Each structure stands twice: as C-alpha cells, then as structure tokens.
Write a sequence for this structure.
C-alpha cells in the first residue's frame, strides 16, 4: 500500500475493525416550525404584518398537508406571536450567549435562535425537545454548519429559566427604570417612556400595561344593530362583552368563521375599544338634525360598519371615505347589506370633495403609530421609530381640521386614534382647537356608562390592562360657531 493510500485509510486499534463513518441523516422537516420561521422572515425582510401573513400560510399548510390540524395551527400561532412579543428580551439573552455583537449574526439565524429561546423560556415544551426541534429546523433552513452554532447557543440558554435570565441581562430598576422595563417587558425604551408619560403614575401601572401588551388579546365580535343580535353570537365558546352592548367575546381557540352571522357579514370581529369609539360618537348630544354622518378615514371598515348600522336605526345616511382604493373596497365589503342608506368613496380627507358644514356627525379615526394595538401587532413596537410621529403629525392635524370644517354648527366630531402617545392624542387636539374658533371639547365619559377608569376627561383614553381593549383614544368636539 502506498503512503498516500495509507493516509486516506483510517487506522484502528489492534484487534478491532475500522469504524464506519456515520451516514448523513437528512433533517426532519417540521411543518409547524418551518411555517413560523417563514412568518418571521416575512416580517423582517418585507416589513409584513404577522396577522396578515400567518393566516394565509396556515390556510396553505392545511391544503397541502392533511395532517396539519388545529393543534398545529395553535402552536404555529404561539411560536410566531410569542417570539415577536418577547423579541427584545430574547435578543438580550441571546446576546449574552454569543461571542459577537448581534448585528454580526445573520438575521435568519437570529430568527431561529429566537424561536428556540421562546420554546425554552416561554412555553411548556420540554427543554430537550425545544433544542432538538429547533436544531432540526436550523438544519433545514440554515444548513448543518450554522445548525451547530444554533445548538451551542440554545444549550447555554437552556441552563436557566426565564426569570433567572431576565435578572441577569436587565439593568436594575433603581439604576435605570426605563431600560429595566424595556428588557423585562420587551418594549423599546422610547416606547416605554412614551407609554409611561401617557399613563402617568408610578411603577405598578406601567408594569401592568407593558405586561398586558404581551398577552394574547381576546377575539371580540360585534353584532351590528339591525342586522344581528348578541344572542345570535352567544354559545358555549362565548361570553358577553365587558362594555359594549353589541360585543361578544370568543373563548380561546374559538373560530369566528364558524358563526353564521359573521360569515354573512351581519356581525364581525372588532375590538371592544373600537366599538366604544363609534358608540360614543353616535350617542353624543346634538343641536338640530341628525341625518348625515361621515366616517372620514373609514378603512378597513369595522367602525364604518357599526356606524352605518347605528345611523340606519335613526334614519341617517353614512358617507364612508377612504383614501386608498383597495381599503375603500374593504369598506364596501364591510358595509354590504347595511339596512340604511350609505355611500363609499375613495377620497383624501385632507382634500375632501364634500362641502363645509355638510354633516351632523363626523368620525376621524386617523392614521397613527399603532402603539395602542401592540397586543395584536407586536412587530410594530420594533418597526416604529420616534421620528415616525413627526410624519404622522401634519396628517393628523390636517384631518382633524377638515373634520371640523365638514361638520355643521351644533354637530360633533370624534377624533380617534389607536395610540396613547400624547403627541398623537391631546397635543393634536389642543393644537387644532387653538387655531379653530367656534369649537369646544365635550365630555365623552358620560357617553360610555359603566366603563371605569376613563381619567379626568373630557377626552377618553382606554387601556389594555384596565379595560381589556386596545389603547384607543377619543376626543369629542362640538362645532359652536
């Protein structure tokens, strides 16, 4: 045998046969974890929203794989939303387990590590199963080389539980309260600061709010008046709403599409906070006629559908306006079958086609940062930047200004936004009222009887931890001259 051949031949101890090389094993493809990874990549790469991407991928998975059942869908949903909600905390923990800055770790690798961290620290999946399943995922989507890196990091994470890790990576509250809360509750520091300013009070309130942002929100239905009743929506998997007379809450795992009224469009999915905004505007006292209503930023149509139904009960007509044509089509779909007169148009609320003083009631639910809906869109907290508010500010002021022009003397405007940030709520209202003679705030609190903790008024701020709703804001303004 030549020397070259001898180097290629493995040697064995005397009396034993050469050990055969371990055959390559193909990684096991786990459709649930692959789907969760695909959603995270879409959120990261395309700025997609999980609540839009996930349902489509779940539907596709059910069609392709007969064995993909409700439990698989529930696990995929938990992996996606749990990972996104806790991303900031998991990043801090992962950073403590790698020998390089996180910015130098490829984003797909970070997504796999975050999925693994959530299984280890945020679910009841046994540690060995969480590590094994995530490493198999890494082999499928990253390759064997990077899967070894994932394995090493996850084994470090698995040594301690969530509370131990948080105590290790979060700065003490006494040294930096906002940074401590940002790490513990997985919110960017600037968001913690903004929410704290809006909420006021001490540590307990802000901790409860941030914790509520990380809870899975209930699915709430609305029975549109004159088209459906809450009795139709009531069943074994439902409970009455807390505050809205039209609300029904689904139990965890309940499927809205299984309810006939929802399938027919007579009822819909709508957060109770959004329902309360429409109800308060509809109940505001007017001087004079009450026949023409306007929803000036109507997309995607939830509030417009409820307003249209409430208007129909009084013989009033609703004009629903939405700037984006594709969103205007969603409004048309939501209003289809409304018992009263309505019209949907695609128009810019800052350059409206209607005449001044044309309406008795006007709703302006303005575009905003969405910081009030972080339970539903957890990725928004990582996507938004403080400078984004500067972009929304002129639009919000312009829309409220035009809304006050659109309403007649004696009529009422509702300024609403799904953000508690003061720069998008009271500051906007105060600035516009200073420049608008003949307009005054009216107290919205009496229009929401039974709803507690509405603040000092006259405007209203709802909170996830106090009301179980999105953090909706509402100011009602009457035109007096």
């Amino acid at each position: 045998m030549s020397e070259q051949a001898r180097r290629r031949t493995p040697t064995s101890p005397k009396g034993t046969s050469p050990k055969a090389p371990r055959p390559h094993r193909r990684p096991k493809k786990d459709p649930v974890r692959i789907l969760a990874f695909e959603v995270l990549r879409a959120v990261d790469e395309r700025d997609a929203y999980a609540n839009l991407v996930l349902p489509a991928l779940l539907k596709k998975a059910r069609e392709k794989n007969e064995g993909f059942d409700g439990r698989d869908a529930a696990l995929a949903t938990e992996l996606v939303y749990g990972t996104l909600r806790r991303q900031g905390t998991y990043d801090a923990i992962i950073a403590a387990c790698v020998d390089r800055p996180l910015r130098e770790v490829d984003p797909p690798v970070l997504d796999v590590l975050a999925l693994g961290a959530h299984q280890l620290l945020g679910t009841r999946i046994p540690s060995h199963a969480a590590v094994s399943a995530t490493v198999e995922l890494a082999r499928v989507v990253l390759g064997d080389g990077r899967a070894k890196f994932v394995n090493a990091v996850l084994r470090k994470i698995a040594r301690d539980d969530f509370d131990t890790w948080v105590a290790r990576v979060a700065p003490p509250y006494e040294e930096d309260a906002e940074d401590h809360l940002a790490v513990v509750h997985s919110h960017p520091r600037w968001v913690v600061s903004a929410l704290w300013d809006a909420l006021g009070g001490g540590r307990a309130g802000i901790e409860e709010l941030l914790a509520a942002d990380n809870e899975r929100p209930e699915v709430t239905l609305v029975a549109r008046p004159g088209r459906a009743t809450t009795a139709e929506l009531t069943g074994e998997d439902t409970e009455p709403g807390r505050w809205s007379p039209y609300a029904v809450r689904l139990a965890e795992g309940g499927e809205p599409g299984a309810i006939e009224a929802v399938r027919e469009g007579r009822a819909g999915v709508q957060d109770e906070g959004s329902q309360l905004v429409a109800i308060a505007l509809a109940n505001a006292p007017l001087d004079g006629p009450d026949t023409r209503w306007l929803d000036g930023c109507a997309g995607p149509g939830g509030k417009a559908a409820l307003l249209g139904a409430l208007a129909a009960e009084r013989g009033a007509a609703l004009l629903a306006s939405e700037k984006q044509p594709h969103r205007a089509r969603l409004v048309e779909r939501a209003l289809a079958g409304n018992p009263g007169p309505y019209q949907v148009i695609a128009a810019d609320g800052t350059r409206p086609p209607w005449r001044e003083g044309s309406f008795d009631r006007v709703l302006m639910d303005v575009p905003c940062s969405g910081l009030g809906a972080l339970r539903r869109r957890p990725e928004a907290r990582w996507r938004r930047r403080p400078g984004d508010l500067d972009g929304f500010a002129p639009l919000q002021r312009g829309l409220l200004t035009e809304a006050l022009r659109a309403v007649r003397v004696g009529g009422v405007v509702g300024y609403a936004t799904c953000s508690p940030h003061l720069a998008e709520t009271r500051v906007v209202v105060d600035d516009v009222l200073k420049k608008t003679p003949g307009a005054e705030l009216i107290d919205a609190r009496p229009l929401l009887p039974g709803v507690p903790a509405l603040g000092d008024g006259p405007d209203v701020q709802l909170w996830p931890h106090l009301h179980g709703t999105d953090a909706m804001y509402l100011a009602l303004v009457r035109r007096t001259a």
